[in-house]
């Protein structure tokens, strides 16, 4: 399953959403801590990935990939496998909410709950897409007429 790019992308999306929900729950847990600034997980930027600034390749930009060990890499290509599964390690960044209280805490619970609901809907959509993709694979693998 890891060799199918669609599932690799879904794995990366689910990993991102999982880490985002974890960060949001930490914000809610620290809603009464003086001076706490809420955090959020930075959304992956596709344009940055294409230009090579997100660490896609050492030479900058996307590189040609080989799909088997016997294939000749074109222009310093990269072997498929390893870390190209789309499941990146996402980092949290400061994301202050719309208001700051007198104690310096800028967590607004309503905004955090909206972020959590948005993240949960995206997670449910990704899981649904994953299940539909598995159903298509099962259908394709089924014996004709059976």
Q: Give the number of DSSP strands.
A: 4
Question: Judging from the principal axes of the Cα atoms, what is the shape?
Answer: elongated
Number of domains: 1
Report the β-strand fraction as a percent range: 5-15%
Report how far apart the termini are: 24 Å
Largest pleated sheet: 2 strands, antiparallel
Q: State Rg.
A: 20 Å
- Helix vs. strand class: mainly alpha
Sheet with most strands: strand arrangement: 1-4
Give descriptors for this structure.
44% helix; 146 residues; two-stranded parallel ribbon; mainly alpha
Task: Characterize the structure shown.
- This protein is mainly alpha-helical and 146 residues long.
- The chain has one domain (5-141).
- It contains three helices and four strands, in the order αβαβββα.
- The strands form two sheets. A two-stranded antiparallel ribbon has the order 1-4. The chain has a two-stranded parallel sheet with strand order 2-3.
- α1 (5-29) packs antiparallel against α3.
- The longest helix is centred in the C-terminal third of the chain and has 33 residues, at 109-141.
- The protein is elongated.
- The relative contact order is 0.20.
- Residues 53-60 and 75-87 have low confidence and may be disordered.
């Amino acid at each position: 399953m890891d060799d199918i790019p669609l599932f690799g992308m879904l794995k990366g999306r689910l990993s991102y959403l999982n880490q985002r929900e974890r960060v949001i729950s930490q914000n809610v847990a620290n809603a009464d801590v003086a001076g706490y600034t809420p955090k959020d997980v930075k959304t992956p930027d596709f344009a940055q990935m294409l230009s090579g600034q997100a660490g896609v390749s050492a030479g900058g930009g996307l590189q040609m990939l080989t799909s088997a060990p016997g294939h000749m890499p074109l222009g310093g290509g990269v072997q498929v496998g390893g870390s190209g599964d789309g499941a990146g390690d996402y980092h949290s960044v400061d994301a202050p909410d719309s208001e700051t209280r007198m104690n310096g805490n800028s967590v607004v619970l309503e905004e955090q709950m909206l972020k959590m609901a948005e993240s949960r809907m995206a997670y449910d959509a990704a899981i649904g897409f994953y299940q539909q993709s598995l159903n298509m694979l099962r259908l394709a693998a089924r014996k004709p007429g059976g």
